[in-house]
Amino acid sequence: MSFNSNRTTYLKPLWFERLNVSESKELIRSYQTSVVYISVGYVVLTFLGRWWMRNRKPFKLRRPLIAWNLILAIFSTIGFWRTFPTFVALLTQPDGIYRSVCTYDYTSDTEAFWGLMYTISKLFEFVDTVFIVLRKAPLLFLHWFHHMSMAIFMFYLYPIGDPVGRWGGILNYGVHSIMYSYYSVKMGGFQVPKSVSSIITMLQMGQFVLTLFANVYALVMFGIGYPCALSNMTIFIQFVGGTSYLILFANYYYQTYVKLKPKSA
What we know:
72% of the residues lie in helices and 0% in strands. By secondary structure, it is an all-alpha fold. The protein has one domain. It is built from 10 helices and no strands. It is a multi-pass membrane protein.
């Protein structure tokens, strides 16, 4: 089995996508400790907020929530549009899967820029929880744990830049583009079949399955002697994060769409 080492870029970077990758990695690395504190503070403030709201009427916030979901839907759609074509072009190569998880041949300014935006966006997604707290909507462990851990994980993964990370980021862009669009439509008062939300949950589980597959594949290739850009930090975060998220989302799916509940529920 042989591998072509020529670098190919399929999307020409737009003017705002050009960045110094080394500087962007150093920037994110310099905030790693701060993000840990911010993420812990996010959890503390979340539960303080729920305590503060316990005897207060919920805020409606319908229009701000629609606008917020639309912003995230548009952001995720653009991120997916700018990264997915190169990802597909890479995977359709004879050695595509290997190169997608083990080599830097297909990295580009476009991919690096949207990886940076993806990393930073995990902090902005904390705003999702603000709406939940102020509207007194149910707050699941899945929700705040996922937001907190993803922010920390991404600020440690981006500076490493292992190729396998593109699987999680690009797939998540795609799922979020659908998920936040769904939230926008639902908050807009449109009737959406319950099956749509269950499909979105399945897509979320699917991205974790594929990400775990990519990591296992990379480990296998490394184990049989092929060079693979895979660090111990990436292996740890991808497996711990991917496995925990898959279990939590699978449990949520079972509790919400499979388990029989009393009619009173």
